[in-house]
## 1
Amino acid sequence: MRKVHVKSFGCQMNVYDSHRMADTLAPEGYVETQLPAEADLIILNTCHIREKAVDKVYSEIGRMRELKDAAEIEGRRMLIAVAGCVAQAEGEEIIRRTDSVDVVVGSQNYHKLPGLIARALDGEKIVDTEFPLEDKFDALAQPSREAIAKRGISAFVTVQEGCDKFCTFCVVPYTRGAEISRPSPKIIADVERLAANGVREISLIGQNVNAYHGADENGRSVTLGALMRRIANVPGIARLRYMTSHPRDMLSSVCDNLIAAHGDLPALMPYVHLPVQAGSDRILAAMNRKHTRREYMTAIDRLRAARPDIAFTSDFIVGFPGETEGDFRETLALAEDVNFATAYTFMYSARPGTPAAALEDQVPEAEKYERLQRLQELITRQWRAFNASFVGKTMEILVEKPGKLTGQLVGRSPYLQSVHVMAKPELIGTIVPVAITDVGSNTLFGELAETAPAPELVSSGA
Ligand code: SAH
Ligand code: SF4
Ligand code: F3S
């Protein structure tokens, strides 16, 4: 038995890929460990999105190198593999910079890991950053029952990967390649397998998930809305989510069905991540976002018209090249107008090879930082008000696991807030009504609103 430690540094897809790498190595005799020091193989699944993310990877490689040296002194062989978007972008450069790395595997080649590891064990240094044409998802092993159970009742499923949008600041089209949608029957089979092993909530993920257009059994293309409707019918699936959506696609007729699904599919959660990046049309155009501020607001309005209790989250970049104080104020004004549940806020980071990195009017770091503080202050205010608005209300909570206190359970609200409630462990995996009594810094607290009927009463029927 050999041990593998996989560490994720990136987005949800990066986390999903880490699971699938572990699944693909399981038949080779690798079991997962949380302790890098005892691993025979360490996989760092990296993110290239901002400069800081890349710096983190190199300092982590340094730390892992110490573990590798220590293992060697004990007479134990340890391999270090770098996967993910830094691997895809930097390739051989990683091996040149650090001789402790044995394998560099790009984002489209995880299914080849068993072979690559075998070659590395024979002493070869491996770099594989090809973009293969085959469906890598088919080649990756499925998770075992134990792996599904260990990962909990909520699972990610990749339905779409890559991006053809080419926002001028972004590396994703280069690190993930062109947009590909997986065929819907394969996605449904994955969901059925997860549901049969206890998963209750599915998040469909993709870089541009609402551009999904995979083929059905007859080769006809299916929209994300149509796919949602089919997945909602899979027995055991209680909740559906999706991310990340692009505002441009939300406005196209491809998303009419998705927007309508928010109105008539109770399982589809009223919580939508719709990154806007900036509030000024001039900056949106320079970013190549392909939508105006007004169009973004139209997308929000359409979704709210279908389901008024939808809450929105977003991503913002401050200090894009050429952004003036006036442009930035339009970002603040947009955030005020939408009233987000929360948002991720980033300082613009120039990424090598992207068009925006070559622009001349880069914003000084101090200015970016100052804008970030102002935006974060506004978002934090909105987030606090959003959480506080639920005190005194009853929410449907999907109970996930035991809490820290005896007798306590932790679950999630429709808005992904974590909710603590005193209740019996049998309720894990079910949806219960909880009356919210209090808000903590990151959590809601509540009481069971009514006693759930005993299982025998339900099954005996009338
Ligand atoms: N596909 C998604 C998100 C991709 S990356 C979308 O279209 O919005 C996640 C977030 O990282 C982006 O939404 C953006 O806010 C941020 N980001 C991407 N590139 C960046 C850069 N060069 N500097 C700072 N933030 C960046
Ligand atoms: Fe990056 Fe833009 Fe594609 Fe999102 S839509 S992944 S920000 S290029
Ligand atoms: Fe990072 Fe790659 Fe995801 S760059 S955000 S890990 S797609």
## 2
Amino acid sequence: MKNQLVTDILYQIADLLDLKGEIFFKTRAYRIAAQTIEVLDEDIEVVTKENRLREIPGVGDALAKKIKEIAETGRLEYLDRLKKEIPEELLKMLNISGLGPKKVSSLYQNLGIKTIEVLRQACLDGKLRDLEGFGEITEKNILRGIQLMEKTSGRVLLNVAYENGERYINYLKRCNKIEKVSIAGSLRRWKETIGDLDILASSDNPEEVMNYFVKYSDVQRVLLKGITKTSVLLNDDLQVDLRVVKNNSFGAALQYFTGSKEHNVKMRSIAIKKGFKLNEYGLFDKEKDKYIVGRTEKEIYSKLGLAYIDPELRENRNELETAAKNKLPKLVGYNEIWGDLHVHSSWSDGYESVETMAHQAKKMGYEYIGITDHSQSLKVARGLSEERVIKKVNEIDKINKKFSNFRVLCGTECDIKPDGELDYSDKILKKFGFVYAGIHTSFKMTPEDITNRTIKAMENEHVDFLAHPTCRILGRREPFELDMDRLFDAARETNTYLEINSFPDRLDVNDIHTKLAKEKGVKFVIGTDAHNLNHLSFMQFGVATARRGWLEKKDILNTYSLKEIEKHLGM
Ligand code: DGT
Ligand code: CA
Ligand code: CA
């Protein structure tokens, strides 16, 4: 189903045309069509095949042709052309939170601003406030947006690095000069954002490996080429470093280049204390400089008297001390998840029907899926009125009759109002199998108020889970400054599970808070917040965050079977 792709491309075109300053109704046509297709009940590929695109309201000949091209090829030449016409720096300005295409276009046309640096200075000098549609507050917001963007700039989200890494590794595996190959660096540790991608290979023919490496089709530019290290820039500006070592150094190099640097530094000092020398070539005897081990990571940790440490833990957060005592947790496995409890459907702002999402979940090996559409006051997300809730409950009852060994649970992602009250009455909340509570509006409150608001919602007896607790969006919205001690205490006392939201720009709660919460006896649920089929696969990023937060299977509700969670949730 390419509905979302079509929608995204049409919105992008509208933004780009706005930026170019096209006449109003031309861009409006793209937005109207995008909005229609966003909530279309049918598969756009089917509509295309059956030649019925013109029947969609707002789609004329020209648009139908474009949609057909997207549906058939997955891309649109017109979009690529538009992107080339507009200066790259202007496109980058679109990523600043609070700046839409209209504003960027106005800044360009009225003040000649075309780079972020010039924009920053103009804000600092108060030059924007006299422009129509701008004010002192806009200037402040833009400055904050630039700051936020810079914090993550040059870094990519975990899923982007992951997909690039997978593809590159698959390509490298086809090189017969390579013996072993692995992802290293922050991606192997599943950090939430990735600076550059590190890959390690072992081979006796490093030169040929490097030649093969730089021939990868997605390489934009070779930055540096040597026989031990080569760096390239991919088309989307992600840097990839490849190191090639001999087989008997593979484990040592993997350990070294997986990092983190802080973990490595401490590990090397442990080695020195025990009379060794440790580097990327192996573990050596300090006196005689004799190679001891280095083929695998395990043997290095073991020779140092340490239990093996999973890459996700290697952040120097007490893992080495704990490994020395052989007290590391048995981390939850990537395959230990039985179901996804945070999933949207076309009842609200999801792209697929309940049934389609359920089939996919079953195909993924799950035993259950929880459909959590938005609540009534979230109009932009087509939140469900109380009346539609009843209809949805009935639909799900019917769908369940079609499945065996699988169950669709009817939940909700109920909005928490500014005063901490929930967006549904208790009478309606009771109709759901389970309730996620989450904040989606009125983000600007004092830390104390936002903490009180959240805790008040958790105290509602119908609330089971707290959705994306800090509400951060990586690169776009700072997390709430919640009083975490109070939040964790409330979670434990009210028996509310904290969500680890797996959406790559959320990963909320994060790894550090997860670890602290666990130490306070808090329990978790990992949800994807999926709005389409692909999003269901984000689960692994949530599990990675759980692992980085030292969680075990027993700490996470959806590692339990359907029977067990029904008991937990009192269904
Ligand atoms: P990133 O790329 O910023 O997301 O983070 P990393 O951890 O991938 O860092 P990167 O790419 O600079 O280096 C890869 C690994 O190489 C790093 O995790 C540990 C190791 N490494 C890099 N620099 C040093 C260093 O100065 N000392 C030690 N011991 N290890 C280092
Ligand atoms: Ca890296
Ligand atoms: Ca690197």
